[in-house]
Amino acid sequence: MTHAPPRGLSAAGTRAVRARFAEQLDRGWHPGAQLAVYRDGVLALDLAGGEAAPGRSLRASDRMLLFSATKPLMALCIHRLHERGLLPYDAPLARWWPEFAQGGKGGVTVRHVLTHAGGFPQLAPSFDWSLVGDWEYVVAQTAALEAAWEPGAAIGYHPITYGWALGELARRSDGRQPRELMHDELFAPLGVAGELSLGLDGPQLAERVPVYSCSEVTRRDPVGRERATSRITELFNGEPMARAQAPAVNAYGTARALARCYAALLPGGAPASGA
Question: Tens of pLDDT along 70-84?
Fold first, then answer.
């Protein structure tokens, strides 16, 4: 069987993307940004611009906080375990994690969590963010939540609980913590372990690109009086969150590493490292 050569991007298309990238930086929409594009399994574009921090230019090799782009990475690990027969999609989490059945969540299935239909979207107001790096604490807090709706009856975005629910499910069924699981199942095989990880440690902490709040305006606070985005920025720039395993929100990596993970999902997508 022969394969068509990678198509790449046209010269005109590349110029247009580069121009739009530069325009957004010029307008101040991003203090700094990266953009990577895979096509036919090949890295066709890898851009970086703006600042990583005041006075320091952002490079294509700088790791950035990926926020909710982390969620598909956690989901991919769950799908890998499903393929091995470890996690049937319609089995309840309580099969592996009995404590999770608290608060009317006994019927929450793997599929419900993957599709944000589990009914436990928000952490309790008493959640202690200084303990975000304590895995036993965060999963116990997740298990203790009361269901806000009957599992499967509605869909509502689970910003952070998504990752801890799936991460503990993976740990109990497979034995590996989410950080190790992502490394072994995704990052190492795809050759991006040097640029992508769940949380950070050691010298990577000092080199991470900080998060910036470009606006205080939110849907619930259209004039920005509550400084909600600044509070989020402060939380995610703190070392406890950077070190933690929060498999819904705190992967750190480059755009090209993340793009490689996503490209691997496509027919003819990014091959395993060395393939």
Answer: 999 999 999 999 999
Both tokens assigned to 3 = 């394969």
The closest of 211, 180, 182 to 62, measured between CA atoms, is 211
Query: What pLDDT, in 10s, does the model give residues 23-44?
Result: 999 999 999 999 999 998 899 9
Tokens of 267: 């027919």
Distances (CA, A) of 126 to 76, 129, 130, 144, 163: 31, 9, 12, 12, 19
Q: How far is it, in rounded angstroms, from Cα 95 to Cα 116?
A: 19
Return the amino acid letter for 162: Y
Mean pLDDT score across all residues of the chain: 94
What's the rounded Cα separation, in Å, for the pair 152 and 29? 37
How far apart, in whole angstroms, are the C-alpha atoms of residue 129 and residue 116? 23
Contact indicator for 237, 154 with CB cutoff of 8 Å: no
- Mean pLDDT value across residues 103-113: 98
Q: Following DSSP, what letter does each residue of 49-115 receive, concatenated?
A: EEEEETTEE--TT--EE-GGGHHHHHHHHHHHHHHTTS--TTSBGGGT-GGGGGGGTTT-BHHHHHT
* E strands present in the chain: 32-39, 42-53, 56-57, 64-65, 196-198, 251-253
Residue 10 structure tokens: 């046209």
Q: Please, what is the end-to-end C-alpha distance for the chain in angstroms?
A: 17
- Residue 271 near residue 263 (C-beta atoms within 8 A): no
- Per-residue model confidence (pLDDT) at position 2: 53
DSSP state of 9: -
Residue 214 confidence (pLDDT): 83
